[in-house]
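lol forgot to send this yesterday, sorry. struct tokens for the thing we talked abt
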């Protein structure tokens, strides 16, 4: 699932000047939909009849197929795993020898468990609440005010849905770019219609969309947005250091909260040692001065990126942005850099060869 916001707010007079122009289509949006609804339903049926262990065995074989026949995915995984390994080593953190095979298995399990979340089968009792995250989240959900929730393609973002269904009646609207995944969206809607979580699918935030979001926020709803991907129409972004190299993060979610003067929370549920850990940060209201608006926004994005780094050091296989995130190896990136960037060799990060270090990394992931 690709949740995304693009930055074309309802009132452009209140937005800062862009730090850069993401005028080309983002590479992740160029991928055709590969969703196979029947296969997903079969796995879910196996889970219902034979239990989770049997379903995960089936997921393992599916992930092997994906890994064998998805060279682009393996390439993306290699680049990311090499980057997180170098980043960890520079900080004295030992991750062991990371494997693209295990990374692909992790994303396959994640997708399966996201579907369970949508069904309502994966609920809050599966979570470990870090720093009383769940209790603090419920306390904020009990307040009448609306808020902007910013997540990432790391861990299981749909855990918020399962938590809300079982513990709170707060209405949540997930804003996502999903027009290139129509079969997946139809499947999600069919899994469980009894939910306080709704989905808005849009190419961009038009004035009409902005008004609708404003009404929802004023009515006390939470708007859930991913904060780690750009759209082609997202002309505003902030380039910050992430895992040792500059990367672009959209300003849209932060601007949305600033324009509508609503508090921001960041929510992550990442799998560590086989258990989901919930992290809930209260960022507060986004305050931007006219004099230093770009720098003010940059601080929020940098804090977001720093926290993501800390999570990934604990759970390196929980990163699910399988595209040229740092613009290193895609055809456009190679052309722009004079052809000096080549694909990472298989030796840089291992494939499916299990080693004792792999076991260490796997134990860290669960």
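and heres what i got for the seq, position by position
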């Amino acid at each position: 699932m690709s949740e995304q916001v693009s930055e074309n707010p309802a009132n452009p007079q209140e937005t800062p000047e862009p730090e850069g122009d993401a005028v080309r289509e983002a590479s992740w949006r160029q991928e055709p939909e590969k969703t196979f609804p029947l296969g997903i339903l079969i796995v879910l049926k196996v889970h219902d009849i034979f239990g989770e262990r049997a379903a995960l065995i089936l997921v393992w074989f599916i992930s092997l197929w994906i890994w064998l026949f998805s060279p682009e995915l393996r390439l993306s995984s290699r680049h990311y795993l090499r980057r997180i390994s170098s980043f960890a080593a520079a900080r004295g953190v030992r991750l062991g020898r990371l494997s693209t095979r295990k990374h692909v298995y992790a994303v396959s399990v994640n997708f399966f468990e996201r579907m369970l979340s949508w069904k309502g089968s994966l609920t809050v009792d599966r979570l470990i609440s870090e720093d009383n995250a769940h209790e603090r989240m419920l306390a904020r959900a009990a307040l009448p005010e609306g808020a902007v929730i910013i997540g990432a393609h790391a861990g299981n973002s749909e855990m918020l849905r399962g938590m809300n269904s079982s513990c709170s009646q707060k209405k949540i609207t997930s804003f996502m770019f999903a027009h290139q995944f129509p079969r997946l969206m139809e499947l999600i809607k069919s899994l469980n219609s009894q939910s306080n979580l709704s989905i808005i699918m849009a190419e961009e935030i038009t004035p009409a969309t902005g008004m609708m979001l404003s009404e929802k926020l004023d009515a006390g709803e939470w708007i859930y947005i991913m904060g780690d991907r750009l759209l082609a129409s997202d002309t505003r972004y902030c380039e910050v250091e992430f895992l040792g190299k500059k990367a672009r993060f959209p300003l849209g979610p932060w601007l949305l909260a600033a324009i509508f003067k609503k508090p921001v929370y960041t929510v992550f549920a990442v799998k560590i040692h086989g258990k989901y850990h919930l992290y809930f940060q209260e960022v507060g209201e986004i305050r931007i001065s006219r004099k230093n608006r770009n720098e003010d926004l940059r601080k929020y994005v940098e804090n977001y990126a720093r926290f993501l780094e800390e999570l990934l050091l604990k759970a390196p296989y929980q990163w699910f942005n399988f595209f040229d995130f740092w613009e290193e190896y895609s055809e456009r990136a190679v052309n722009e850099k004079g052809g000096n960037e080549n694909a990472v060799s298989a030796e840089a990060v291992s494939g499916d060869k299990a080693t004792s270090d792999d076991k260490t990394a796997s134990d860290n992931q669960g």
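Residues 1-26, 339-366 have pLDDT under 50 and may be disordered. anyway ping me if u want another try
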